[in-house]
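Workshop exercise sheet. Pairs work together: one partner reads the sequence aloud, the other fills in the structure field after running the prediction. Swap roles for the next sheet.
Pair: D.N. / O.F.
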Amino acid sequence: TRYTLSMASSPLFRQLRDIGLPEKSSLVYAYLLEHGSAVPSAIALATKLNRSTVYAVLQDLKLKGLVTQIE
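Structure field:
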């Protein structure tokens, strides 16, 4: 399973935090902005978050309409 962005936005972590995304969500979303799409394990490795945390964050971002899951 891969995830990709469902809307264009600024890739800057600070801007994501400024608009109200939590820190972990901002890390994951910023990574996707920079890389376009990625598997959760790659996101976890790059962001230093636990893989289970990345899955939870991706689910939250998906519910908010910020990312789309690609099978």
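Discussion prompt: Residues 1 and 71 are 5 Å apart (CA to CA). What would you look at next?
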